[in-house]
Design goal:
The chain is an alpha/beta fold and about 400 residues long. The chain is built from 13 helices and 18 strands. Strands 1, 4, 5, 6, 7, 8, 11, 12, 13, 14, 15 and 16 form a twelve-stranded mixed beta sheet that branches. Helix 1 runs parallel beside helix 13, helix 10 runs antiparallel to helix 11 and helix 11 crosses helix 13. Bound molecules: nicotinamide-adenine-dinucleotide.
Length: about 400
């Protein structure tokens, strides 16, 4: 195999050279602080595991404020081309430009590369302050559909002629009485997008020996969108995984040994159950808006968005962008103060995706030891008894030292 250069994708498999080129976007606001902390940890983990045999060649690409200053564009074509060419990349948070051609650079990147699965693992690191009594019971991976739903950007503003025309059409065709001063948004949920997301969640659950996949939806109210998501989920589970799964309706008690349980929950009760009985949930497959709320709510249980990694993935084409799940926190920009864990853990997810799980595990154990030593950034230090506050860069140095200790 080619030892240096581009990752390729053949027969549904990612082929990763020993020295892959990986594009990165530093990000806006606190982006440069957390990126320089995270890249040190990622490189050190690879170095410890393979002593130079493997090494990532980082390639900076521009997006956000840095791109706008240098090129006059928020998301240059070359950036999208680089992610397409090199397949796997990583990014810090980006400012959402107000009044530009698109609402969010993140949404634009996800749509342009058809990164249909937003994957967010949520697990607890002992010692990290949490608002719940038993945060160690939270161990879930959320698969959020990333291309449809009210995020598709299909909205018309109140008061415009085209909005009134659509309301008139809907009144005539369906008898829908939409108030004349309404804005109108469209919520498309397709069978194809729902089933490819559900398949990604089930494939992941099977490959990692997880116990269950829960479809979270509002199908009791939105029958033909959220309800259809649920029905299509069960349909594809039974069609494509018949001998590997068992559904809720088919069993009285625990699922038989070795079978993945497929179940569902209505979104509002899910929020309650995730707090009261988090151990009942494992892999979650859900629609776009539900997934957005759920990921941040679960992250809060394990210490907040500063702790939660994320990835946007197209499993069919072999494209993935790993990212910090929080925003640019502009008031902390350049202060070397914030918590880089979200981006560090996103880097660990990326290493796992590359087929380098040894390095991902190194990072997790380095973080575990650092949290246990109570030397943490301000956000955790203020909530932790006996903690020593350290800077963003110092925190990453401590993680590197702890990784080296074995
Ligand atoms: P935010 O996540 O940037 O910050 C909210 C607060 O959370 C901060 O003030 C800070 O107190 C805390 N915080 C966030 N990250 C932290 C970290 N790593 N360590 C410690 N504390 C941290 O959310 P916001 O203020 O709503 O958004 C600011 C900007 O970020 C907006 O332009 C928004 O569009 C953008 N944004 C980008 C992404 C992304 O790129 N994926 C995600 C969310 C928001």
């Amino acid at each position: 195999m080619n030892q240096q250069g581009k990752i390729s994708f053949q027969k549904s498999t990612l082929l990763v050279p020993e020295n892959p080129v990986i594009p990165f976007i530093e990000g806006d606001g606190i982006g440069p602080d957390i990126w320089s902390a995270a890249v040190k940890v990622i490189d050190r983990a690879v170095e410890i595991c393979w002593r130079g045999k493997r090494h990532i060649i980082w390639k900076e690409v521009l997006a956000g404020e840095k791109a706008y200053k240098r090129t006059g564009r928020w998301l240059p074509r070359e950036t999208i081309d680089a992610f397409q060419e090199y397949r796997v990349g990583i990014k810090g948070p980006l400012t959402t430009p107000v009044g530009e051609g698109f609402r969010s650079l993140n949404v634009a990147l996800r749509q342009k590369l058809d990164l249909y699965a937003c994957v967010r693992p949520i697990r607890y690191f002992p010692g990290v302050p949490s608002p719940v009594k038993e945060p160690q019971k939270v161990d879930m991976v959320v698969f959020r559909e990333n291309t449809e739903d009210v995020y598709a950007g299909l909205e018309l503003e109140a008061g415009r002629k085209e909005t009134r025309d659509l309301a008139n059409y809907l009144r005539k065709a369906h008898g829908w009485d939409i108030s004349r001063d309404s804005g109108i948004g469209i919520k498309p949920i397709s069978k194809s997008a729902s089933q490819r997301l559900v398949k990604a969640a089930i494939d992941f659950a099977l490959s990692k020996n997880r116990r269950s996949v829960t479809f979270v939806h509002k199908g009791n109210i939105q029958k033909f969108t959220e309800g259809a998501f649920r029905s299509w989920g069960y349909e594809i589970a039974r069609l494509d995984y018949r001998d590997k799964i068992v559904t809720w309706e088919e069993i009285q008690e625990s699922p038989p040994e070795g079978k993945l349980l497929i179940k569902d929950a209505i979104a509002d009760i899910f929020f309650q159950q995730a707090l009261l009985r988090p151990e009942d949930f494992d892999v979650i497959a859900t629609t776009n808006l539900n997934g957005d709320y759920i990921s941040d709510a679960l992250a809060a249980q394990v210490g907040g968005v500063g702790m939660a990694p994320g990835a946007n993935i197209n499993y069919h084409k072999g494209y993935a962008i790993f990212e910090a799940t929080h925003g640019t926190a502009p008031k902390y920009a350049g202060l070397n103060k914030v918590n880089p864990t979200s981006l560090i853990l996103s880097g660990a997810m990326m290493l796992e995706f590359l087929g380098w799980p040894e390095a991902a595990k190194k990072i997790e154990s380095g973080l575990e030891k650092t949290f246990a030593s109570r030397k943490v950034t301000y956000d955790l230090a203020r909530l932790m008894d006996g903690a020593t506050e350290v800077s963003c860069s110092h925190f990453s140095e401590l993680v590197c030292e702890n990784m080296a200790k074995g």
